Amino acid sequence: MALLKILHYPEPRLKKPSVAVTEFNDELRQLAEDMAETMYEAPGVGLAAPQVGVLKRMIIIDCSPSEEPNDLIVAVNPEIIATEGESLEEEGCLSVPGFWANVKRFSTVTMRYQDVTGKTHERTADGLLGICMQHEIDHLEGILFVDRLSPLKRSLFRKKFMKMLKEREQKNEA
Ligand code: GNR
Ligand code: NI
Question: Where does residue 92 rank: exposed (0-12), middle (13-18), buried (19+ CB within 10 A)?
């Protein structure tokens, strides 16, 4: 087991689409385990492989309310195959620390995915789990939640975030 480094905006790798997983081997299972350890330690309710610099289509999610690893979903090559309704809920992202905003999503989604052995599953979810599925699959396309804000809110975000980075840099130099 190993803790992985979570990449932060504006890291270019977060903007790239990830490639499909074709080999369901030990390396993939090791990555899933390391990602889980990293997510629980953060703590976060989801993590996508590109957030740890691996541009492969794998995400993990655990939206269970408990502190313990509880309902861990490891989803390889995930796709949304059905959607319903609309929701507007506040989101954050481990790759965009210190920033939250309301994001428009589908209220219910059905995700088809493979597990680490290659077996196909489907899962329908609403609430935080449904939002997380959409948020994590976005990462596989190089899309961050801030990319889904209105152009005005997005440019305000950029200014604010860059200012924060600069201030942090100056502090570190002092
Ligand atoms: O930990 C996380 N919390 C969260 C809250 C609301 C909507 C989405 C998320 S996902 C985020 C972890 C993360 O960045 N996953 O990519
Ligand atoms: Ni995220």
Answer: middle
